Amino acid sequence: MRFMLLQNYGGVEADCAPMDKWSPEEVRAHIEFQQTLNHRLEELGELIDAQGLAGPDQARIVVSDGTSAPLVTDGPFPESKELLAGYRIVEVDTPERAVEIAAEISAAPGQGGAAIRQRIEVRQVMSAPDPEV
Amino acid sequence: MTDHTGVEGLLRELAPQALGVVVRRYGHFADAEDAVQEAHVAAAASWSADGVPDSPLGWLVRVASRRMADLYRSDEARRRREDVAASWSKTPPDPASGQDDTLVLFFMCCHPLLAPSSAVALTLRALGGLTTREIAAAFLVPEATMAQRISRAKRTLADGGASFALPDVAAGAQRLSLVLRVVYLVFSEGYASSGGPDLTRLDLAAEAIRLGRLLHELLPDEPEPTALLALMLLTEARRPARTAAGGALVPLADQERARWDRTLIVEGTSLAAAALEQGPLGEYAVQAAVAALHDAAPLYEDTDWERILSLYTVLERMTDNPVVRLNRAVAVAMVEGPDAGLALVDELAASGALARSHRVHAVRAHLLEQKGATAAARAEYVAAAGGTDNLRERDYLTLRAASLRPGSD
Lengths: 133, 409
Hints:
- The complex is a heterodimer of chains A (133) and B (409).
- Chain A is α+β, with helices and mostly antiparallel strands and 133 residues long.
- Chain A has one domain (2-124): Alpha-Beta Plaits (2-Layer Sandwich), CATH 3.30.70.1060.
- Helices cover 24% and strands 30% of the residues of chain A.
- Chain A contains 2 helices and 6 strands; from the N terminus they run βαββββαβ.
- The two termini of chain A are 18 Å apart.
- Chain B is mostly helical and 409 residues long.
- Among the domains of chain B are: 1-93; 321-409, Serine Threonine Protein Phosphatase 5, Tetratricopeptide repeat.
- Chain B is 72% helix and 0% strand.
- Chain B has helices at 6-26, 29-50, 56-71, 75-90, 95-109, 116-126, 132-138, 143-159, 169-193, 204-218, 223-236, 239-242, 262-278, 283-296, 305-319, 322-336, 338-350, 359-370, 374-387, 391-403.
- Chain A binds chain B through residues 1, 42-49, 91, 93, 124, 126-133, and chain B through 115-118, 121, 139-142, 144-146, 148-150, 152, 187-188, 191-193, 196, 235, 249, 251, 323, 327, 388-394.
């Protein structure tokens, strides 16, 4: 079964300054953590995809009624903390394993190496139906 | 689609045989499997350009053996390599033991140490003769991830001391049921994804049927492999009618039966009958018999629900599987009316089995709709749609719910 593990910009539960206040070493450790995790998930045969998204400043929101010109809003957005920052897609044998991976992602290191306690949303990707149906 | 011809078809047939021989000679399943993959790739290029050699199996074994020898550079390994190389020119592979080897490969790839997803990948590579790239594409997984999954599976087998031998008689039945389950998993995956947007994906249902045929040929007197092949053919026969244009799911009751594949139904039905004659009665034999009854009905209204009910009663006793109990409840409803079915569904739901499954809601919705309780049926369809992890099923259930809205007909 396949799960999408999503993280937003604002979802850090630890009392931790934003990343632009971190030291280069702290940033490097954080990035290395992500790369190592991806590599390990790949080795476990579980990683399907891992992507970070360009920042909220580059985000645009589009609304259309299908006939008139679409309404395009440029950032920054007041609710930018709720925007998606990145995701991983993993294929695992049990939902418990997806939660376990999410917990690892959540504990990424931040300032002083302490876990940032990122909120990770665990969502199952829809599959196709069984022959029985 | 499954009819592989020429070099590719020959290779896919011979690669598992070559693997059996190489593993038997060298005793290292993981390395032998890699070596045969490489020989397979080399053969695909060489044979297409220069023609198929006189003894294609011998060619594959020779190239794979050379690769194995390269892998083992220690003195001992070198001595062994020379012995093996010398023995090659003399002994052509014995077809009888080759069959045994292929069977051992099935047991190895579907070993109880492996998670189902790993067993599936390994089986498709070692026995289906597919490349990692093809398997990865079929499951929409990156190639690197699939390669790791396969090599991890082989490491697990090595670490767990899995031996390249047929399981003993005591463990045999249980081990065979694992092999059957893996083949059926491949089939389910292929069947489920058929009709999807990506038509270039490898046809996994066809691959599973191919594996099922191979297994049946290896064990012609065993009823369950016969029955599994029957079940797959009888299910596959309905595939053309199972999705509407655009991929929407068409339930059995609404399928256009003229589109069912008669040839597959004839073959599947006779295999299902053969499995029943072979006995003792197994789970796949009962399921194949149910599938044969569905396929035999010219119209949904002609379905022999009484016999299907008695088969599900047998199956329920055999498996004690809640999904089977749910299917039996549907059959009861068809024979005795929706209230009898609903009573069984409520009993099942109260027992706590399938508590997290949307299927209870879906079945209840159908039965409520059958007896005209539209408001209640609609609520159950909505609950079922919210619980399913299947996109097309959710679409179907959402549509059913919408069609029961007050004011719609």
